[in-house]
Design brief:
alpha/beta, Metallo-beta-lactamase, Chain A, 16 strands, 18% helix, binds D-malate, binds manganese (II) ion
Length: 312
């Protein structure tokens, strides 16, 4: 199985269009050791021919342009795509807005939990993908689902989705309740175990996660590869950077560092390869010369980059 990180940044991308924080400025200026990144998405292929996308980011047009494997084959039909299906891990803008760019009456299949499919259904703009051409299919929790294209043919990619601690999408927050924290762990946000139906090498892709609990730790023990929520380095980073008022916890994202963070929470598990994805434009690890970058690398984690490939 081949995995390709086609977008390693969180919502907004890096640099973010309206961001004047030092990291976005340095990325715009081409500073040494600071690489631009597009918004959160992963591509997987079992046969090097058909591809399954995990999340469809607002940058999908650029991501396809940057990824020859995702472009129509030179000898293919006049309108065609190797993208056979899109699996959604939540309904956040950075994970679903790219669906709108995949219109043009091109068949592929969309897979998501009941909760996320209900969000698509409630937003008629997604009807630009006519469900008779782009079928929407339920990804049932905690069981293996063979991902099929719109034509019903198997892609060879098998996915098990499982709820993780998260939050409803930002645009669904009902702010009339001052006590609400909008947290959810019932399918609004899922992680996925991705494998092929042949040699069985598995990867976990979890771009959003609010907390590491025992269920998740049990699931991840002995994983061959983990692509995990690397939104923030520190919980209060956006506040300290002066760009926002929210902590990571309030946004449904745990941090890389700290006692409750991903590095500490998973340190004792045997995991083959650990890669942070969904990296926010305030995260100091985006600067390869930073002490935070060095600390994350020393802890055995890789920092996801656009175009990074993983073979399993
Ligand atoms: C998130 O990951 O928290 C969301 O993508 C935020 C957003 O929708 O802007
Ligand atoms: Mn996001």
């Amino acid at each position: 199985m081949r995995l390709k990180i086609i977008g390693s940044a969180a919502g907004g991308g890096f640099p973010q269009w309206n961001c004047n924080y030092r990291l976005s400025r340095q990325a715009r200026n081409g500073a040494y050791g600071i690489e631009s990144r597009t918004q959160s998405s992963l591509a997987a292929s079992a046969d090097d021919a058909g591809w399954v996308l995990f999340n469809a980011s607002p940058d999908i047009r650029q991501q396809i342009a940057d990824t020859p494997e995702l472009q129509p084959a030179a000898d293919g039909p006049l309108r065609s795509t190797p993208i056979r299906a899109v699996v959604l891990t939540n309904a956040d803008v950075d994970h679903v807005a790219g669906l709108l760019s995949l219109r043009e009456r091109q068949p592929f299949a969309v897979y998501a939990t009941d909760e996320v499919l209900r969000v698509l259904e409630a937003n008629p703009i997604f009807n630009v993908l006519d469900p008779s051409i782009v079928p929407r299919r339920v990804l049932p929790p905690d069981e293996e689902t063979a991902i099929r294209g719109a034509d019903g043919r198997e892609t060879g990619i098998v996915v098990e989705g499982f709820a993780v601690p998260g939050k409803v999408a930002l645009y669904l927050e009902d702010t009339s309740d001052p006590q609400a924290d909008f947290s959810s762990d019932n399918g609004d946000t899922v992680g996925v175990r991705v494998t092929n139906d042949r040699d069985g090498g598995a990867a976990f892709y979890i771009p959003g996660c609010a907390r590491i609990d025992n269920r998740l730790r049990t699931r991840l023990a002995n994983a061959g590869c983990l692509l995990f929520d690397g939104t923030l380095y520190a919980n209060d980073e956006m506040i300290r950077a002066g760009v926002g008022r929210k902590t990571g916890a309030r946004m449904g994202h745990l941090s890389m560092s700290g006692g409750e963070g991903a590095i500490a929470g998973l340190a004792d598990l045997a995991i083959g390869r650990r890669v942070f994805v969904h990296i926010n434009n305030t995260n100091p690890v985006l600067d390869e010369n930073s002490p935070e970058h060095a600390a994350v690398r020393a802890a055995g984690w890789e920092i996801g980059r656009d175009g990074m490939e993983i073979e399993l």
